[in-house]
Amino acid sequence: MVPLTAFLIVAALLFCIGLYGALARRNAVSILMSVELMLNAVNLNLVAFWRFNTPAQDVGSGLPIGMSGQVFAVFVFVVAAAEAAVGLALIIAMYRSRQTVIAESADTLKF
Amino acid sequence: MQTVDWVQWLAFGILTLLTIGSALAVVIDRNIFHSALWLLVSLFGVAGLFVMLSAPFLAAVQVLVYMGAIVILIIFAIMLTRRLMGLTEALNTQWWVGGITAIVTFLVIAFVLFQAGQGANPILVREPIAALNGRGVEELGKALVDPAQYALPFELASVLLTAALIGSIVIAREDQ
Amino acid sequence: MNWFDVNNLLWLIPIPPLLAFAAIILGAGRNKTLSHVLAIGGIIISLLFAWLVVARGLAFPHLGHADGVFGSSITWLSNGTNGVGSGALRMGVFLDPLNHVMLFMVPLACFLIFIYSLGYMAHDPRNTRFFAYLSLFASAMLTLVVADNLLLLFVGWEVMGLCSYLLIGFWFEKESAYKAAIKAFMTTRVADVIFMIGIAYLWATTGTLNFREIMFNATTMQSLGSTPALGGIFGPTAAGVIGICIVVGTIGKSAQFPLHIWLPDAMEGPTPVSAMIHAATMVSAGIYLIIRMYPVLSAGGNPAEGIFTGPMVLMAVVGAFTALFAASIAFTMNDIKKVLAYSTISQLGFMMAALGIGAYTAAFFHLITHAFFKALLFLGSGSVIHAMEHGEHLAHDAAHGHDTGHEAVALASAEHGEASHPAEHGHAQEAHDAHGAHQDTVVAHSDFDPQDMRNMGGLFRKMPVTTWTFVIGGASLAGLPLITAGFWSKDEIFAEAWAAGTKNPLGLVVLIILALAAFCTALYTMRQLCMVFAGEPRSEAARYAQHYEPRTRANRNVSAQMTAPLIVLAFFAIVAGFGGINSGFWGLGAALKGIGIDAPFGHWVGQSLLAEPEHIAFNIGPVIISFGVFILGFLLGLELYFRRPVIAESDPIAEFMGPTWYRLISNKYYIEEAYKRYLVRPLTWVSEVLTPQLIDRGIIDRFLNFLAYAATQIGNFIRAFNTTIIDGVSDGIPEAIGDIARSARQIQNGRIQRYLLYSLIAAVFIGANVILVALASGDLVRAVWVIEALAVILLLIFFGPGRPAPTSGGAD
What we know:
The complex is a heterotrimer.
Chain A: H1 4-24, H2 28-53, H3 68-98
Helix pairs in contact in A: 1-2, 2-3
Chain B: H1 2-28, H2 32-52, H3 56-80, H4 95-118, H5 129-132, H6 136-145, H7 151-172
Helix pairs in contact in B: 1-2, 2-3
Chain C: H1 6-12, H2 15-26, H3 32-58, E1 70-77, E2 89-95, H4 97-120, H5 127-146, H6 150-168, H7 175-206, H8 211-215, H9 218-226, H10 238-253, H11 262-265, H12 271-280, H13 282-292, H14 294-297, H15 310-332, H16 336-356, H17 360-399, H18 405-415, H19 429-434, H20 464-478, H21 485-501, H22 505-533, H23 540-544, H24 558-575, H25 588-594, H26 600-606, H27 620-643, H28 652-657, H29 659-666, H30 671-744, H31 752-775, H32 778-799
Antiparallel strand pairs in C: 1-2
Helix pairs in contact in C: 1-3, 2-3, 2-5, 3-4, 3-5, 4-5, 4-12, 4-17, 4-24, 5-6, 6-7, 6-13, 7-10, 10-13, 10-15, 12-17, 13-16, 13-17, 15-16, 15-22, 16-17, 16-22, 17-20, 17-21, 17-24, 17-26, 20-22, 20-24, 21-22, 21-27, 22-27
């Protein structure tokens, strides 16, 4: 089995790539896409940890395997979807009023 | 099981390459439509990794929701904000600082991971698959609707989703 | 209380003239008759009270010694128990033999002068004011006479000084008059300051100023006489210092050398004033003072043995010198009143010198007799001047051919604005000048001086009564033997000087000088008499001079008012001497003793002293001197002035002395010029230049300006300090904060990616530090943190947010 660390490294890498994209891209949609990458990295993390740290059977109580990791990942999906929807709606609204999707031009909330 | 180890490593390597490579392409490609497509590929790679991690349901959900809905949504948004496609610089003014920061972040995380791996108690490897076969989805479902477990968050998540979607409709609506 | 009790009556004596003064000044002055009534009434009441007291006092033959004295007093400044010598001050009156005699003479003389003034000042427009001042003067003199302590005496003294100023400058329009008034006041003031110091010192030493308490107390006198003054710094005793101060006071008031300069100039006042001031009252007050204070002046010495104290020597020297000095000047004076003025100074010198050699009784005797004959002489001279003026008017009227003297006078008087006196015109020449421009354009009067004896002559025929009274007065002054009072008093002085001369050479010196002065006195008196009355009139005015005014309703009493006092005074000028004849005198003395008059004056006055002065045995020597000087002077005067007719322009004395001496003496030895140059001018310089310009403007003003300048500079400095430093700091801090804020807020540039970057960097930084802390040792951790801090600071400095650009956006 591939060790946990490998998966975590992959997730970290994915996360940092997404981070770079969120920091460096001009287009707001690109930023959103980068954010999706980051969320996926998180998901990967969660599932990896679930796979490697959840016991098969609780020896003492005999309860079945915990699904917390997967549940968490499901919720991340949900939230990601919601956030993507809202974010894109915002982008479209901004595009409508300002004719631009460049994140840098949304700078009126400044000093 | 040593015998199929190299197969796992091979699969892991291919999937990783796929994921990371297309992720890089997402953030590097100037053409935003292309980045969206690369995103698709990256997400697919992630789905593959989910499968490797014995979470096939999540892989399916990933394909359905992420690749099938969210990225489509993104493409719709790209289409709707099409005017500036391909005409501008892809990177903003702080791209190199961002790059350095991202690299540093990764280094820090990697360092921690390696330190953790060296410790007294390395991360254990489980042998769960047999117990989960065929019943992972069922357990997931049970966990989601079991009031003792995650029923409330499940309901809240659905509320959240509803609100978000309604909100986005409102925001993206044409002014009347 | 019984107001006719002598103790209380004494209080009343000075009051009536004071009330008259107040009444006239406050309102009655508008009505001439009322003012006259008040003034004359006041002095008459004082006279009656005074003579009542005198009469009552005569009932006590041992007044002063066994019978004590009359008197009463009120404590006005108490000090503890108010006992004798406690320092309490009392105001009171008393009667002892000394002021008993003064109370006889002073009111009488004042009264006579008042009557005379009615006539003399009849036509003066400020008549009522004159009587007011005169009343005040009389009141002050009487206060001085009845005073029982030195302070009240000093009060009277000073009020008299004021009145002399007011009266000398009565015709104040005339420059010489007001200048003379100021001179009189100033000169006496100088002396009075020193006198006051003496009073203060006396009070400090003995704790009292009452005459009886000081001088009838043997222990006090002894301590005064032996205590060294002021802790022994100077040589003299306490009594010596006090005495010298008092003598200086008298030198000023009685016009002795060197403070004699005011008296001749005081002749600017009306003649009754001269009589009052310079004969009867004021100058006598000075001599009265030293006679009164004689025990203090002689304390420590023994005049009977010829031991004279400091003050006595001072008196003897100054008095004798003044007597001769003034007599010598009197020769050269041509103004009738100036001669009398110098004569007064000279006679006062006699009195002072007499007291200086211990002739207590003789000095006082001479004071009394002098008062009478000098007043007589002054009033007589007033009549003469009056007559000369009449004569002058008549003369110039006649010269211009006016129909009648009356009409001419009427015209002239109409020009003078005196319509109410149609026929009379009796201003003194002094009044003419006082009223400014004489409107009479016919003849200029200004160069005719009715007082100049060279214009007189032959007035004997015109005014016989005046002439005879004047002659009597002059004879008394010169010392006509045996008949006149002046002889007896002068003779007594010589006798005392002779007796003192056997014990102390000072007495002999005094005797010689006084004898010379007496000779000069006789000579100048003869000169005056002959120039004025004898011979032929030397000017038109003298020819027309008449004393009798044409009778009108308004003037019917004027001449009588002016003549009657002369007669009364002449009587006393003769008779007053007989009370002081030495019982050892040949013939006359024995005769008087037979009828019980044994030098009553001496005995009487002697009782005012604790130790009665020794009775001088009769000696023929002084008598010969008295006779001798008189005869010599009389004969020489007769020869120079009577036998030969006096020519107006040349004076035999002048030829006798030679031009240099004559010029020196007739300019009064240039003393006044010396004073002017060496005293007045430097003092004027001090007050006009030194104090206002050099000190006030130069030093004080400069200093104050400098202070102001310094304060202004300090203010400027503080202002600059405030502006630059305080404001700089207090404005600078907010500015700096503002600058920092303006710089710092550049961080918020509105771009979310930048924010994300910031938080990411922070998170990574913190994370790295956490790892560092967890994994590395303390030293490494610390070192890394230092490096991190430095790096942060450097980054902030070089890459920190800069100033905002004018346009939006300010990323680095």
